[in-house]
Write a structure and sequence with these properties.
mainly alpha, 6 helices, about 60% helix
Length: about 170
C-alpha cells in the first residue's frame, strides 16, 4: 500500500478508537451481568481487529505514521469503583490474568490494546468487573518482570507494543 493510503487508514483507526472509547465509557455504566459482558466482549474484539488487523500493518510498513501523542488520562489510571473491583482479586486470579496475557502475546510485536482485548474476551466470565486499565497494568508488570518486552508508552495501550521476551534478553 502506498503511504497516503496507510495514513488514511491510521487516521480512520484513530477516529474509530475515539468512538470506541465513548462506547467503553457507556458500557462501564451498565450494571454488571451478561448483557454488559457481551458488550465488553464485542468491544474487545473490535479493538483487537482495529489495532491488530487494520492499523498495525500500515504502521509496520510506514513507522513514521505512529508518531501520534496520547491524549487524556493514562489507560492504566483506575477510578475508585474500578480499583474496588480489582482489590477483590486473589493471587491465583492475578496469575491467571498474567498467563492469559502471555498466551495472547507473541514473538512478534503486538499492540497492548490487542493483547488486553483478547485476554479480556477470554476471561470475561471469571472477571466481569475488571477494567482494561488493570489488564494494562498487568502487562506493565510482565514487562517489569522480564517476561515481556515493550516499546512505546505502556500507560497508553494504543501507543505501546509488547512481545514475548526471548531467552537471554531483558525487558525494554
Amino acid at each position: 500500500m502506498d503511504q497516503e493510503i496507510a495514513r488514511d487508514i491510521v487516521a480512520a483507526c484513530e477516529q474509530a478508537s475515539t468512538a470506541l472509547t465513548a462506547a467503553e465509557e457507556a458500557i462501564s455504566r451498565m450494571p454488571e451481568g451478561d448483557e454488559r459482558s457481551q458488550h465488553l466482549r464485542a468491544l474487545a474484539s473490535l479493538l483487537a481487529s482495529l489495532f491488530g488487523g487494520l492499523r498495525a500493518p500500515a504502521v509496520r510498513q510506514y513507522p513514521d505514521l505512529d508518531k501520534a501523542e496520547p491524549l487524556g488520562d493514562p489507560d492504566t489510571l483506575l477510578d475508585a469503583s474500578e480499583q474496588e473491583s480489582v482489590s477483590r482479586l486473589t493471587q491465583p486470579d492475578l496469575e491467571l490474568i498474567d498467563e492469559t496475557l502471555l498466551a495472547n502475546s507473541a514473538a512478534s510485536w503486538r499492540k497492548v490494546a490487542r493483547v488486553v482485548g483478547t485476554a479480556m474476551n477470554t476471561l470475561h466470565k471469571q472477571f466481569p468487573g475488571v477494567p482494561d486499565g488493570f489488564y494494562a497494568q498487568r502487562v506493565a508488570a510482565l514487562v517489569q518482570s522480564g517476561r515481556l518486552q515493550a516499546q512505546g508508552n505502556l500507560e497508553y495501550m494504543r501507543f505501546s507494543e509488547v512481545r514475548l521476551a526471548s531467552v537471554g534478553q531483558s525487558a525494554a
